[in-house]
Amino acid sequence: MAFLRTNAPAQAPGFHRSRVGAILVTAVHDGFAKRPIAGFVRNADEPAVAAALREAFLPEDAVPIPFTTLVLETEERLVLIDTGNGDAGAPTSGAWMANFRAAGYRPEDVDTILVSHFHPDHVNGLRLVDGAPVFPGARIRVPRAEWDFWMDDARMAAAPEALAGAFRNARRVFGPMRDGTEPAPEPFDPGEELVPGVTAIAAPGHTPGHTAFRIVSEGETLLALSDVTNHPALFVRHPDWRAVFDIDPEQAEATRRRLLGEAAETRTRIALYHAPFPATGHVARDADGFAFVPVQWSHLV
């Protein structure tokens, strides 16, 4: 299959290409949102969070949260890992489609979409606010545990207010697939090879079915860690810190330590959804936590 990206540059402000063996990986930026630090970390006080942001040369009053998805191109198919905020995110987000097109791609080129979890900033790109599907020809694959959780009527009815909006949004995005108006998504389980070279990794805690992905080709590996951490200045450096978004904070911490530890020990490159663009690098052990070491852009081309 031939894609339009052949005449696009290797990098631009909103996208960046690298390779994992024969797989071309394009990071596509979707802008950012700001989150006040009050209550953002459940088990750290505001002065500690502000200090961590200051050490990372970031504003101390709010966390700037970037959004970066991955596009995987093989000879046979074009695969997305998550779809960004679509037209339903913060005013400083919503750049995904423009950057995707700037990279030389079109929505109709997409063969398969792999969803890491059902939080709005990962799935809203599937459907516009007016209800129109963005990738009507794509095969959509979702973690079975995510579907079972967010599509369960009893859980939705019993959800605390903090989760009610996410439940409603999941129904907005996936409702037509659930009721048969559109093709149903295909569920997957941890350990399954979803497309050649891409395997699902169980990463629960952030959400019940939260999933990371191992991308392997020609002896090279990239771990797409999704929301195993939010901003690395906080949660890579302090893996014991627990973000307000994590449904099961204790499990999320265990997952974070396991996968960051694996990446550090094997020196495997990672991609983090909420790291500064192009959101890829390595992990090194640092005291009681880890350090995120960005890859030099020119080394990726």
Compact description:
The chain is of the alpha+beta class and 301 residues long. It is built from nine helices and 15 strands.
Key features?
eight-stranded mixed sheet, 9 helices, globular, alpha+beta, seven-stranded mixed sheet, 301 residues, single chain
Average pLDDT, to the nearest integer?
94
Number of helices: 9
Which strand order spans the largest sheet, edge to edge or round the barrel? 1-2-3-4-5-6-7-8
What characterizes the major β-sheet?
8 strands, mixed
Q: Measured on Cα atoms, how large is the radius of gyration? A: 18 Å
The number of E-state strands comes to 15
- Alpha carbon gap, first and last residue: 22 Å
Secondary-structure element series: EEEHEEHEHEHHHEEEEEHHEEEH
Question: Strand-residue fraction?
Answer: 25-35%
Percent helix among the residues?
Answer: 25-40%
Explain the overall architecture:
With 301 residues, the chain is an alpha+beta fold. 26% of the residues lie in helices and 28% in strands. It contains nine helices and 15 strands. The strands form two sheets. The protein has an eight-stranded mixed sheet. Strand 10 (198-202) and strand 11 form a beta hairpin. It is globular, with a radius of gyration of 18 Å. The model has no long low-confidence stretch (mean pLDDT 94).
